């Protein structure tokens, strides 16, 4: 199965993960990831017939609460905005979604 | 004031009696940091001013008998949110991030009057076993500055070992409290999954992450653990189980009749001989005190590393999607459109190890590979949890080594991720199963003089047996009386 993780596959996964790598980075990364996925492939030898997947260790079930809107203070709003890379008139500013246009 | 010669109980008595002030304690902690930080680099961000202010206010109000933690200087791992105080997760991505609320654990400490003297270094986003992946430089092991402190809570463990503080908060996703505790000769507890709220802890692997303490003594660890445990409406996985006063019965604790299981996989020749020797001597010691030691097997141990790195990386790839350069954190320059913001921000803002994990996780979850990797690993995870359940049917505690080696040299493993991942083989399984596990000082390597940690693993919600056993071991052995020499110490 490890054969699937070639350079093209790594590029595809990078695209899914919204990451990009230079050719030099890929030269280092691809063999490392291959080696790790080879390690993952060891799991093939374990018989898991009839075993249910375990995705959490919690013992709590169906924790519910009322969905209540809580108004926060102006100070909190400002503190949140202070963490944003770019703001304008009390809003978070992002570049245009479409290519090329600056604003 | 030498924190290596005291503990919380003693300091509290002295504070109440007016023999020492909270201000003096904080000053002692900061002074020790002044003397050791140039060598150790345990802290990302010091909190001098606010800590002193808080101490002065406590002194003015007076510390009462029922305020056990009031005025005690402690440290907080820098992936735990502190309102108004930069919290970086040791990543460029969050270099200038200022949280707008406190993590539940921090809120509890504040309410108890404990004083946060600074934020400790970690592997970036807690991904690593050495702190070498921190954007802010590697923390050095106080016992030998050419060695790593372990990771990812390496800063917290080094801060305690250096005598800066009596306790520091850590987080443990696959061994990140226990391994650095072992490498630094201090006490570290990863509680049962759900014991402590994860609210305000920067998420890595949400089904594994737990907050816990790294301390110099077992009793301090028990006191501090009770203070941060308990159900929290903000974390739906936090447990409703009652929280015991873990420290209350320690003085009467005994290991007579304690049924200890020693998994042969935890003392196998995959573990360095110098580590094995110390663990075997420790087990003999417990036997001499009346414990019953049995060899058992946890047959799926060897699959722990692949299972863990598939599942934790998958969860990380999902959790770290939020770092997109929009609402907070780093944003790359020279971006033309939204896609550019995402890709450039993430590619420039994350370090190599974080990107490696995001890639592994995204791959394991991707169409065509989900069944072979994520789902398969989740099934083997259940088998690993069942291994533990079976052993605990007729044993009280599992004991073995914490790490396969003592602290390794800085730079030794960093370019070989596969080798680095195998350092976690003895710690990841407790996270997979959700059971509590701790590391305590067991002795020193004959080969290099470095501390060796003994790992104690318990039944779910049975941290008490671990604390009792650890306390008896500590009180009847000598390892914890030795301390790293730094900053002109004799």
Automatic annotation (TrEMBL), chain A:
What GO molecular function annotation could you give as one example from this UniProt entry?
asparaginyl-tRNA synthase (glutamine-hydrolyzing) activity
One matching Pfam family: GatC
EC top class, in one word? ligase
Name any Gene Ontology BP term. Answer: regulation of translational fidelity
- What domain of life is recorded for the organism? Bacteria
Q: Which UniProt keywords apply?
A: ATP-binding, Ligase, Nucleotide-binding, Protein biosynthesis, Transferase
UniProt cross-references to InterPro entries, sorted A to Z = Asp/Glu-ADT_sf_sub_c, GatC
Q: Which reaction does it catalyse?
A: L-glutamyl-tRNA(Gln) + L-glutamine + ATP + H2O = L-glutaminyl-tRNA(Gln) + L-glutamate + ADP + phosphate + H(+); L-aspartyl-tRNA(Asn) + L-glutamine + ATP + H2O = L-asparaginyl-tRNA(Asn) + L-glutamate + ADP + phosphate + 2 H(+)
* Keyword Protein biosynthesis in record: yes
Q: What is its EC number?
A: 6.3.5.-
Q: How does this protein assemble?
A: Heterotrimer of A, B and C subunits.
To which protein family does this belong? Answer: Belongs to the GatC family.
Q: What does this protein do?
A: Allows the formation of correctly charged Asn-tRNA(Asn) or Gln-tRNA(Gln) through the transamidation of misacylated Asp-tRNA(Asn) or Glu-tRNA(Gln) in organisms which lack either or both of asparaginyl-tRNA or glutaminyl-tRNA synthetases. The reaction takes place in the presence of glutamine and ATP through an activated phospho-Asp-tRNA(Asn) or phospho-Glu-tRNA(Gln).
Record protein name field: Aspartyl/glutamyl-tRNA(Asn/Gln) amidotransferase subunit C
- Which organism encodes this protein? Limosilactobacillus equigenerosi DSM 18793 = JCM 14505
TrEMBL record, chain B:
Q: What is its EC number?
A: 6.3.5.7
Answer whether the UniProt record assigns the keyword Transferase to this protein: yes
Which top-level enzyme class is recorded in the Swiss-Prot or TrEMBL entry? ligase
The Amidase domain is annotated at: 24-466
Q: Which SUPFAM superfamilies match?
A: Amidase signature (AS) enzymes
GO cellular component terms, alphabetically, are: glutamyl-tRNA(Gln) amidotransferase complex
Active site annotation, chain numbering? 77 (charge relay system), 152 (charge relay system), 176 (acyl-ester intermediate)
Question: What are the record keywords, sorted?
Answer: ATP-binding, Ligase, Nucleotide-binding, Protein biosynthesis, Transferase
Which domain of life does the UniProt lineage start with? Answer: Bacteria
Q: Name one GO molecular function term.
A: ATP binding
Q: Give any single GO term for biological process.
A: translation
- What is the similarity comment for this entry? Belongs to the amidase family. GatA subfamily.
Its subunit composition reads: Heterotrimer of A, B and C subunits.
Q: What does this protein do?
A: Allows the formation of correctly charged Gln-tRNA(Gln) through the transamidation of misacylated Glu-tRNA(Gln) in organisms which lack glutaminyl-tRNA synthetase. The reaction takes place in the presence of glutamine and ATP through an activated gamma-phospho-Glu-tRNA(Gln).
- Name-wise, this protein is Glutamyl-tRNA(Gln) amidotransferase subunit A
